[in-house]
Amino acid sequence: MLMDSQPALAQLKADLEERRSDLRAAEALFEAEALRLAGLMPVQLEQAQLELTGLRAHIQELEQQCGRLSASEAHFRAMVQAKDEEIASLIHRLKDYERIQARLRELEPQAEADDLKRIYGIGPVLEKKLNELGVHRFEQIGRWGDAEIESFQAQMPEARVRRDAWVKGAREEYFRKYRKALV
Q1: Angle formed by the axes of helices 42-107 and 2-37, to 10°?
Q2: How big is the chain by its Cα radius of gyration, in Å?
Q3: Which site in 2, 31, 73, 142 is 20 to 30 Å from 20, CA atoms measured?
Q4: Where are the domains of the chain?
Q5: Are 177 and 138 contacting, i.e. CB atoms less than 8 angstroms apart?
């Protein structure tokens, strides 16, 4: 909704500026016409007064449009502010949720360690380093994303996480051991 209101707000601003420009042009026309009419004969003066009345009506219509556009702009600004506040609230709730999830993971009873050497490319030395870094189970490696892969690769340059497909191997070993797939 927030993304939809930005173009609408920009369009309203452009329309408002166009109406204001029309209003200024009409006022200038009005003044020029008034000066021209001062030198006309009575018949021409009556015609000019009718024209002038039409111009005044047009000016009044433009002023009303400007007022409506200003009200719309204020409405959209209020909507954007409300959405910004809602987004800020959701971000705060998400951060709280992430903190709670992290705390729950810390409080989970630790499952027995898996034999990480069963994953292709992990030998006793790398298994020990992984254990020192807090990685003990197939599930942990099987849930790694790009960020985790890069982080562990940086901490263990000799490891070939991507080349040896550790994540895939960990998922396969997890399935073999627990008879369920990682989701």
Answers
A1: 160
A2: 36
A3: 2
A4: 2-107, 116-178
A5: yes
Q: Which two tokens stand for residue 145?
A: 């994303």
Cα–Cα distance for residue pair 87/90, rounded to 1 Å: 5
Contact 143, 182 (CB under 8 A): yes
At 42-87, the pLDDT tens digits run 667 678 788 889 889 988 888 888 888 888 888 888 899 999 999 9
Q: Are 59 and 26 in contact (CB under 8 A)?
A: yes
Model pTM above 0.85? no
Query: Within 13 A of 19's CA, how many CA atoms are on the CB side?
Result: 19
SS3 sequence of 37-60: HCCCCHHHHHHHHHHHHHHHHHHH
